[in-house]
Amino acid sequence: MAVASSSLLFLNSHVLSSSLPFPPTRPFPKPQSWFLLRAKFRPISLSITRAVKSDVSKEDIVIVGAGIAGLATAVSLQRLGIRSVVLEQAESLRTGGTSLTLFKNGWRVLDAIGVGSNLRSQFLEIEGMVVKSEDGRELRSFRFKDEDQSQEVRAVERRILLETLANQLPTEAVRFSSGLEKIETSEKGETLLKLNNGNQLLAKIVIGCDGIRSPVAKWMGFSDPKYVGHCAFRGLGVYSDGQPFEPRVNYVYGRGLRAGYVPVSPTKVYWFICFNSPSPGPKITDPSELKKQAKELVRNWPSELLNLIDISPDETVSKTPLVDRWLWPTVSPSASVGRTVLVGDAWHPMTPNLGQGACCALEDSVVLARKLANAINSGPASIEDAFRSYGSERWPRIFPLTIRANLVGSLLQWEDPIVCSVRNNIIIPKLVRLGPIMEHTNFDCEPLITQISETSGER
Ligand SMILES: Cc1cc2nc3c(=O)[nH]c(=O)nc-3n(C[C@H](O)[C@H](O)[C@H](O)COP(=O)(O)OP(=O)(O)OC[C@H]3O[C@@H](n4cnc5c(N)ncnc54)[C@H](O)[C@@H]3O)c2cc1C
Fold first, then answer.
1. Fewer CB near the terminus (10 Å): N or C of the chain?
2. Ligand 1 interacting residues, C-beta cut-off 6 A
């Protein structure tokens, strides 16, 4: 397919709107502010992009993967006046995984990119957590703000988070059914991306946001993430007449088995069950089988869990083997090679035991966008440096968190009855302090919105 799109390199999508098939979908900044932008982000080259072969088009910045990391990176770049194209293998935004909990670091980033208020209005603030044993006995409860006044916890629906981010971008910025199949480096140092729809793109900059099985990471020499010995069932219970729970995270700790549920909105409650398993087991897609297995695990546990599983629409129920990858210094490849860089799970898959995978992906996206924007401002030669600086800044943040999340998971998945009894009767009721445990949610982030004030997500 011959593609001949014109694109002025590194100008914001608004500036491009006159020459590209990307109609602006949101109010533009005031003219004087985008003139400033043009001056600030001077183009690397003003060449017109055209097809170099019948089916190869050129792009400046290609983001692979329209998950949380990919969309947040595209929005962050856009806020700084930089256009990118996002390739997504699926036909539409991914909705699997149903919900996730975002802590204050995640909310700082969402505020910085201008979507925090919009999302806040749709999801309940969670005030605290309660930990129970499998017989329903309360072991301990905490209020988040007693430990840290600035803490903010909400469970968000992944679908709404992704849609909110995507709605900040021009309609055609995200290209669906565009799975990356193969990567090659061209003689000029550009990167050739071959897609499973037959298209090929020659990219100056590639940002791999393609999740735990990232082909970009593989190409950069990263090993596959490692299965950690437990799997998670997840789902979203829907109470059409209103859900009955207080705004708290509820945890139930058993032996080699734990579960939790947290209200998401006035009608929805997210739940999960984590269980030990020597292998990830076969992939199960039949929702009734997934529900049956999940219920079997907690059949003698507090009944609200069984009820939640029953009232979860089929499409919200899934089973995921938990994996991570430890980024050992000197042994692991760097976050970037030349002008290709990784963000989110593609770089640092971590277990969900601290609820930090998506939060860290959001953090990555703003840090990277700022550094890339500064590099573009000071000339193309510094892009590699910007990516190295991103890797050096983010590694001390995500490496310890990955290990900590893994260790917390191992401790919580203990099977030994004596150890579990000590945990439930001494450690949790008497020794645990929530404040220090949640220090990792501290993350400062200035707004990226220099030219556009927050909108309610209009396109
Ligand atoms: C059970 C569980 C519970 C979790 N709970 C939480 C939580 O409470 N809080 C939290 O912060 N995090 C949580 N996480 C982690 C969180 O889900 C991930 O860290 C987050 O989704 C990472 O986002 P990402 O964009 O990097 O990857 P993904 O969300 O996986 O997105 C990757 C995208 O890339 C696309 N893609 C993949 N390959 C290709 C290709 N070849 N070509 C084009 N596109 C491609 C995929 O289709 C997908 O859309 C949890 C994870 C699990 C497993």
1. N
2. 64-70, 87-90, 94, 97, 100-102, 179-180, 209-211, 215, 232, 234, 320, 344-346, 352, 355-359, 361
**Least confident residue range of 41-55, 158-172, 444-458:** 41-55
Quick check: 37 and 12 in contact, CB under 8 A? yes
Spatial separation of the C-alpha atoms in residues 235 and 316, rounded to whole Å: 5
Mean pLDDT of the chain: 86
CB 390 within 8 A of CB 69: no
Q: Do residues 413 and 258 make contact, with C-beta atoms less than 8 angstroms apart? A: yes
Residue 345's pLDDT is 98
Ligand 1 centre and the CA of 351: distance in Å? Answer: 11
Amino acid at 13: S
- Across residues 401-416, what is the average pLDDT? 94
Q: What is the pLDDT of residue 223?
A: 96
Return d(Cα 71, Cα 113) in angstroms, integer.
Answer: 11
Q: Determine which residue's CA is closest to atom 2 belonging to ligand 1.
A: 352
- The answer to pTM > 0.85 is yes
Strand partners, 263: 269
